[in-house]
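Bug report

Summary: structure tokens for Ergothioneine biosynthesis protein EgtB differ between web form and batch submission.
Environment: batch mode, default settings.
Steps: 1) Submit the sequence below via batch. 2) Compare with the web form result.

Sequence submitted:
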Amino acid sequence: MPDAVSDLSARFRAVRAHSEALAAPLSAEDQQLQAMPDASPTKWHLAHTSWFFEAVVLAPHAPGFRPYDERWARLFNSYYESLGPRHPRPQRGLLSRPSLDEVLAWRRVVDAGVCTFIAEADADTRAAAFPLVELGLQHEQQHQELMQTDILAALALNPLAPAAFPGEPPPWPAAVDGWLGFDGGEAEIGHAGTGFAFDNETPRHRVRLEAHEIARRLVSNAEYQAFVDDGGYRRAALWLSDGWAVVSAQGWTGPLYWREDGTEFTPHGPRPRAPQAPVRHLSYYEAAAYAEWAGARLPTEAEWEHAAGSATPPSQCFGALWQWTRSSYEPYPRYRPWAGAVGEYNGKFMVGQIVLRGSSFATPPGHARASYRNFFPPGVRWQFSGLRLARDA
């Protein structure tokens, strides 16, 4: 157990430090920005993840715990009805108080409190609370990616086109073309093993797959440009009805952050669009329309997971972009949410959303796995999302 304690403590410190490293290049003014109701300020992410450790780990399990400032729970609770009232999500950017310095000071106190708790907890408390510490770390890693997508959305609105992060993005290596074929039959999907998984990845269960093929790589900028040049955004027949309504109402003509001069806005500022790089910042509607234009379709989440776990998986499954599937986000057979407040983490969102699989270049190392189910509404474009094609065999 001493190794487990020291490992968890070290991992806690590393994850918490990474959040602050991501925020470090941003000014206090940057960290106050909220581009749209669905996004959140960087400062809010830093505070919310601290609130989570207070509310889920320390308050129920640490003897004598007292919150840093009990008034702040209302400001930084996201959607947990059982944990009290919440400030409206679209108004998070209006929270100029507490200041960034106060939020960072709070993080220091929470860090010390959790590390002390990990070191001093008895066996029974460890059994009950250490899984919640791990959940808090996984939760913070999710917010680390959201910090990057949310600040990108905010800075993209600035006519000066400032970069969120210094330096140059890493180049995209060439990926192998072609298709991988899979026979039909029975397969198993869902989390297996003893490592961490969110409740929506369970239970592991059998599914029936028809024979199909999956593209070896993601669709590239050059390929998507051909769709745009062929009038893809002007041809209603390619689009789902809801998607065409959004395209028409919002005037979409290409992926979010594409610019007429051949550049795209990135975390490193405007950069030329690399033809071979996977096209990104697509909605489900755009991914489905491209697949229709290409004479293909999007994979189901079961097909994607089966391929990713095969002996010869496609390239770019992980570390490139999240990949839209054609699967609605819904519970697996015999799904049961976690007990207590954390039961609100996933299950109550299982309506009106589409599953994405894989991970992106902004996903923290160690946070991805084949069974991971990301999910967003079909019109969302500000995430690091792309597409992989599939077709019936």
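Above is the batch result. After comparison, the two runs are identical; trailing whitespace caused the diff. The longest helix spans residues 123-155. The first strand starts at residue 179 and ends at 182.
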